[in-house]
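Researcher: I'd like a candidate sequence for this fold, 710 residues long. If you have to choose between options at a position, lean toward the conservative one.
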């Protein structure tokens, strides 16, 4: 897999070669080395300076030795050996320009430290990686030795630790505007793995990175940064024939390879292809985020995110192309304009949709109206989406304990203090809710108006989930807690100890032999079919055992147990059985990735399989929802659902796709709020909620009786 072995590997130092063959070295600054070595930031920079100073001393000694050889000073040479040290050999080569330096570095202070280091020891920096604050200090990066470094970053991944808190979706465009090379990258997480690398470029383009630079950010720019631009990253005569044929424009949502060539050899023997509409063959006309990008820089990465309430009780949306609304437990298209000449209006009063259709149908004379007018320019109204799976609403920064509710104690693994439930009490997520978090507000601005979250847990026992508003300022705000208690949650996974069979056995005992404790009453309610049980499980073997347990409980209680599988990566293998047993599945994440053994049997969808695991479940009439694994991903829910709809190739209506992250989720998680007047609507300008051409501009909130404007 080695693309180009460096000359030094076989000791042939070809200084006069046409081009160097690069070695690469990774450095890290900030929290990562601090956590490993117990350093402060000052310690880390001092360690770097010591290392480079040692390398420079060796390099200078080697240069002097070679000068002595050229001068013929044999007496001196026989006294001192050639200066070399295996520990520092690679760093000496950095100073000789043979090794490219890639630096994991987040914050402005660390970026500045490393730029000064590059100047002190005179070596170029190939790229800063992650670099969440780089866009706030572009002029600092330009001061690096020899040339400005590239910035290799994620599109939306941020706020998972303090260093990443100021990360922004607008960072790629801002850096590009300052002339800095932008590279979009993946990571080892199941949430943003290399299979979806192109999606990183698509998101960057959506938020304002120009089309050519977005495509270059995953092709030619990283090739040049690695020193491989003479072989890969371009379609040119004489370059490696590593090519991808896409089924749509690379920046269109859901773009999928039809064929992949490595050295001209096709890699897919029988690719599965979904025919895409013509509109997907051109670059999407993305929204304008100029103001948001400017505000982000002006506020040093932390712009205000709270929406502004409409000035009038009455709000009229014009230029409406389509309206999707909840109908019982489904989402249906209730209005669709044939063309731009027949765009309709939607009249809202105190957060309640009163009418949709033409102006005459709604009896509305816009020229005389005192209402707030919002032009959607061919946009749509859709139900507010719901997020589930990550602990959004219970934590602000995952790696900062002071910002989290914390994990519940687990009686299977540790003694539970009586004061917090040693007598069998269940923990309620609603007691730990935090409002006004940046991930919650960003999700709201992307059409995700509610979250359902279970207590944070590491092992078997979780507790009772809750539904909350992502826009609420605090728990006492109107409509902040939508449903105090949703469902009972546990996990059955391969933790190592205790065994999976012990976990199943515990669950069986709790359901078949409940005691009189608070927890016992809840498990009894589940067994009698009154409450929903959500079990986190991915393995098809574990899921099959849970289905059998459900039947066992139903036989004893003569009931209908409401069981939902969360995670469910391998659930599609049991689609027929799940449908027959009336077991629903929330797949987390929407696009599966085999991160651990019990997730290995994925069905990824085209081009590798005919259809995805989600579509397999839906075709067997299993109720399906989708979730996320990390808080930042909530704002991408609209794209996750849109991708599923595109991949379905017409087998899934937009209403059915919207239900995956709204009505279906609520049903699967014990939602009991059924009134139409209790659910939000999202207004998008320029297109529908699930595409790359629309922008969320308003949320209609019946619960609070207002319309929020973005």
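Model: Candidate sequence:
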């Amino acid at each position: 897999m080695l693309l180009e072995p460096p000359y030094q590997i076989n000791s042939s130092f070809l200084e006069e070669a046409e081009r160097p063959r690069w070695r690469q070295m990774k450095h890290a600054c900030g929290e990562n080395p601090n956590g490993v070595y117990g350093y402060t930031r000052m310690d880390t920079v001092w360690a770097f300076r010591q290392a480079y100073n040692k390398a420079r001393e060796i390099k200078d000694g080697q240069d002097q030795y070679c000068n002595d050889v050229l001068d013929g000073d044999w007496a001196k040479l026989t006294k001192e050996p050639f200066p070399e040290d295996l520990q520092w050999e690679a760093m000496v080569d950095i100073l000789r320009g043979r090794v490219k330096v890639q630096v994991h570095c987040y914050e402005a202070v660390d970026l500045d430290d490393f730029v000064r280091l590059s100047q002190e020891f005179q070596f170029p920096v190939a790229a800063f990686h992650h670099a969440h604050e780089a866009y706030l200090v572009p002029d600092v990066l330009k001061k690096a030795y020899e040339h400005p470094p590239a910035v290799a970053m994620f599109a939306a991944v941020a706020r998972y630790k303090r260093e990443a808190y100021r990360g922004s979706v607008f960072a790629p465009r801002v850096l590009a505007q300052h002339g800095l090379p932008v590279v979009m990258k993946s990571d080892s997480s199941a949430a943003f793995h290399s299979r979806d690398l192109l999606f990183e470029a698509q998101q960057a383009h959506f938020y304002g990175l120009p089309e050519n630079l977005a495509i270059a950010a995953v092709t030619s720019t990283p090739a040049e940064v690695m020193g491989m631009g003479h072989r890969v990253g371009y379609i040119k005569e004489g370059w490696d024939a590593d090519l991808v044929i896409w089924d749509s424009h690379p920046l269109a949502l859901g773009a999928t390879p039809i064929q992949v060539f490595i050295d001209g050899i096709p890699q897919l023997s029988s690719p599965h292809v979904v025919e895409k509409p013509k509109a997907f063959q051109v670059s999407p006309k993305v929204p304008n985020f100029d103001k948001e990008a400017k505000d982000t820089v002006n506020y040093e990465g932390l712009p205000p995110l709270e929406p502004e309430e409409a000035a009038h009780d009455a709000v009229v949306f014009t230029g409406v192309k389509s309206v999707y609304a909840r109908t019982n437990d489904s989402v249906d298209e209730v209005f669709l304009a044939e063309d731009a000449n027949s765009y309709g209006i939607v009249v809202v009063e105190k957060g309640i949709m009163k009418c949709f259709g033409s102006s005459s149908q709604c009896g509305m004379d816009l020229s005389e109206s005192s209402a707030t007018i919002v032009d959607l320019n061919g946009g749509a109204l859709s139900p507010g989406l719901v997020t589930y799976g990550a602990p959004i609403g219970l934590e602000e920064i995952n790696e900062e304990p002071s910002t989290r509710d914390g994990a519940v104690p687990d009686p299977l693994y540790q003694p539970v203090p009586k004061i917090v439930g040693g007598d069998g009490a269940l923990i309620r997520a609603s007691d730990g809710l935090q409002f006004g978090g940046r991930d919650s507000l960003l999700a709201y601005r992307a059409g995700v108006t509610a979250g359902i979250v279970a207590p944070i847990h590491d092992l078997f026992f979780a507790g009772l989930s809750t539904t909350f508003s992502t826009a609420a300022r605090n728990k006492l705000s109107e409509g902040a807690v939508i449903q105090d208690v949703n469902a009972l949650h546990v996990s059955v996974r391969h933790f190592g100890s205790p065994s999976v069979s012990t976990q199943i056995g515990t669950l069986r005992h709790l359901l078949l032999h409940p005691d009189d404790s608070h927890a016992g009453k809840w498990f009894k309610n589940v067994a009698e079919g009154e409450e929903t049980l959500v079990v986190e499980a991915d393995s098809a073997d574990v899921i099959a055992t849970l289905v059998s347990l459900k039947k066992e409980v139903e036989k004893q209680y003569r009931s209908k147990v409401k069981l939902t599988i969360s995670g469910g990566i391998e659930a599609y293998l049991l689609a027929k059985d799940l449908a027959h047993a009336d077991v629903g599945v929330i797949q987390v994440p929407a696009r599966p990735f085999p991160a651990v053994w019990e997730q290995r049997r994925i069905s990824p969808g085209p081009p590798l399989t005919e259809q995805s695991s989600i579509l397999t479940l839906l075709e067997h009439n299993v109720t399906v929802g989708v979730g996320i694994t990390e808080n930042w991903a909530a704002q991408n829910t609209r794209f996750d659902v849109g991708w599923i709809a595109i991949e379905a190739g017409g087998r899934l209506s937009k209403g059915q796709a919207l239900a995956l992250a709204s009505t279906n989720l609520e049903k699967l998680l014990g939602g009991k709020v059924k009134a139409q007047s209790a659910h939000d609507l999202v207004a998008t300008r320029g297109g529908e909620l699930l595409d790359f051409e629309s922008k969320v501009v308003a949320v209609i909130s019946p619960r609070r009786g207002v319309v929020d404007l973005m």
